Amino acid sequence: VVGSLVNNGHDLTFEVDQTSQWGVNISMGPLSYTYRAANLKVHFGSKDERGSEHTIADRAFVAECSEWNGTQSYFRE
C-alpha cells in the first residue's frame, strides 16, 4: 500500500494514495459494492487514559483506531 503518514499531534493518519495501483479494496460477503480504503487514523491524547474520541460505558481508552473508505465510484468522480 502506498500513502503518507502524518502526525498532527492529535492523531496519526495514514492516507492511502488513490492514484497508486496498490490500493486496498474491500468486497464480497454481505457487501453490495466494492469499497476502497481511504485512510486509517489512530487518535491519542496527551494522557494515557484519555486518548480515544469515544467512550464505552463512560470509559475512555489510551487510543482509538478508525478507518474510512468509499465505493469505487466515489474515487472515480
Automatic annotation (TrEMBL):
Signal peptide positions on this chain: none
Residue stretches making up the Alpha-carbonic anhydrase domain: 1-77
Organism lineage: Eukaryota, Metazoa, Spiralia, Lophotrochozoa, Mollusca
Protein name: Alpha-carbonic anhydrase domain-containing protein
Gene3D superfamilies named in the record: Alpha carbonic anhydrase
